[in-house]
Amino acid sequence: MHCGEAFGMKTLKETTVLITGGSRGIGSAIAKRFAAEGVNIVLHYLQSHEQANETARACMMLGANVMTISADLKSKDQLARMREKLDSHGIKPDILVNNGGIAHYGLLGDVSEQEWDDVMAVNLKGMFLCTQLFMEHMVTQRYGRIINVSSVWGMSGASCEVLYSTTKGGMNAFTKALAKELAPSGVTVNAVAPGVVDTLMMDNFNPEEKAALEQEIPAGRFGSADEIASLVYFLSLPESSYITGQIISPNGGWHT
């Protein structure tokens, strides 16, 4: 099977990818990577309207059809309305990239119950709701790709990021379990767990902290959003059908 083929009578250019949290950073890079191959894009965002439009314009310049859509990942009702809107346009995603999420830094003793609930709701509940809403079409057509953007901290844990690490560890367990459930239906489920990536999330670190962190990484640098996007794209390809239930961590040799 060639890269331009997908399943049945569809070609890769006739498939649709839904990317949550797609307005900036890794999500934006993922959208542009798919757009470069002519895949139809559904770009989800919450409040970053201008950034979502900027990413959409970049994708259209690459020749892709793009729809932007806003919804709160914590809200089942809003996500259901998002699916209804897509259905009304005849759009049924064949590839779901659960990228939307929020970070949290701080000692566990300082985490409030509200902070715990909010991060859990976005990072875990949002992934659950989106997957549940959009996997039915994949199962019915016996083809689909679900790719969850996790973190190396979900594998190794991080001091002062207990809450965030917990959500990403849950995402990894979700990935492994759902992969077994959907494998007979021709749907793969994998997670990409990046190490340190040079995005706006790194703005919480000062230059000295960044330099010290780079020295810990055998590759001697942070990863780029484009590198993460290329791995996500690879996992979406038809010829990646035997890769499922895997947590793949591009981290420059930092954690092995």
Automatic annotation (TrEMBL):
Please name the GO terms of the biological process aspect recorded for this protein, alphabetically: monocarboxylic acid metabolic process
Q: From the UniProt record, which GO molecular function terms apply?
A: oxidoreductase activity
Q: Which UniProt keywords apply?
A: Oxidoreductase
Q: Which domain of life, per UniProt?
A: Bacteria
SUPFAM superfamilies from the UniProt entry: NAD(P)-binding Rossmann-fold domains
Protein family: Belongs to the short-chain dehydrogenases/reductases (SDR) family.
Under PANTHER family, the record lists:
3-OXOACYL-(ACYL-CARRIER-PROTEIN) REDUCTASE, 3-OXOACYL-[ACYL-CARRIER-PROTEIN] REDUCTASE FABG
Q: What is this protein called?
A: 3-ketoacyl-ACP reductase
**The organism of origin for this protein:** Paenibacillus oryzae
